[in-house]
Amino acid sequence: MKFFNYPLCFLLLACIFCKPVLAHKLNAAESTIKYNIRTETVEIVHRFYLHDVNHLTQALAATDKTINSQEDKYQVFADYILNNLETVIGSNNESTDISFIGSEVENKYFYIYQEYTGDKSSNTFNSLSVDISAMKNRWKPKYWLFHVELPANLKESFVLDNNSLSHKATD
User: Fold this and answer.
1) What distance in Å separates the CA atoms of residue 11 and residue 84, rounded to the nearest whole number?
2) In the β-sheet with 109-116, what is the strand arrangement from edge to edge?
3) Rounded to the nearest 10 degrees, how much is the dihedral formed by the CA atoms of 118, 119, 122, 126?
4) CA pair distance 3, 6, nearest whole angstrom
5) Where are the domains positioned within the chain?
6) Domain formed by 27-170, architecture
7) What does the pLDDT look like over 35-94, one tens digit per residue?
């Protein structure tokens, strides 16, 4: 009589050891800041993994009882990102006219859309400054990739991580 089934034992062990790997937080984000020639605006698209969105909003829901639906959860996450991400386009280092366009869920990603609606003269786009230092208290991606394509030959990709919380790109 055979009591030990090797394939079944292997499958059970694999499931036990794979579960922690599947449940980890990704803590990664990607942003694209690009000039649209057709509309003459700067479009900013932030992409986050839904898993990370869920982790932050669960932590926030423990203290904020107003998060009742999926829409509330996504709005809370978008507000958190927009309130803690500082993006300055132009050389004056003043707050720029970057407006929130909307957000959406697509597959395993959550997208936040913004648009720069300020001065569109060519000398405005000679620098970009990004700062995520305000995020480190609650939630901040371990790696946040920024890809920038603005007029005046400002084309650059950079990563902000636990060590570098801000970056200034200039022409």
Assistant:
1) 44
2) 98-106, 109-116, 41-49, 28-36, 143-150, 154-161
3) -60
4) 10
5) 27-170
6) 2-Layer Sandwich (3.30)
7) 888 888 889 999 999 988 888 887 766 666 566 666 778 888 898 888 888 888 876 655
